[in-house]
Design brief:
mainly beta, two-stranded antiparallel ribbon, about 5% helix, elongated
């Protein structure tokens, strides 16, 4: 998983020690278009919605990308995910939360980042 910076071109840098990434995809609602001459209900697809996303990292206090997410709650960041089958998904993510998780007895420090996908997902 990578965090984008700059513009034209956006440069993506790996977010260190990502442990898990929630489901990523789009769904579309339905818009009823039934009119008085219809013999049954008519529908068209609504606008795609990327939904929400949550991912977990080993928290590294000195990591630039993790700090940008922590300090960027309420802002929109460019994000890119690369899967093992070489598929990529690139999208804008409104950062809604950055939470340091409960510390384990073994001392693992993790954080959970949550956000909402804004606009479409570009698949490649």
């Amino acid at each position: 998983m990578k965090l984008g910076a700059g513009s034209d071109p956006i440069v993506y840098t790996t977010i260190a020690e990502v442990l898990s990434i929630g489901a990523i995809g789009s769904t579309a609602g339905e818009v009823e278009t039934t009119h008085l001459e219809s013999t049954a209900k008519d529908y068209i697809g609504g606008l795609p919605d990327g939904g929400t996303l949550e991912f977990k990292v080993n928290y590294l206090a000195s990591n630039t990308q993790q700090n940008a997410l922590r300090d960027g709650v309420g802002t929109t960041k460019n994000v890119q995910v690369l899967w093992s089958d070489t598929t990529t998904g690139t999208f804008a993510l409104v950062i809604l939360g950055f939470t340091r998780d409960e510390t384990t007895p073994e001392g693992q420090l993790t954080a959970t980042i949550s956000g909402r996908i804004s606009g479409g997902i570009v698949w490649a």
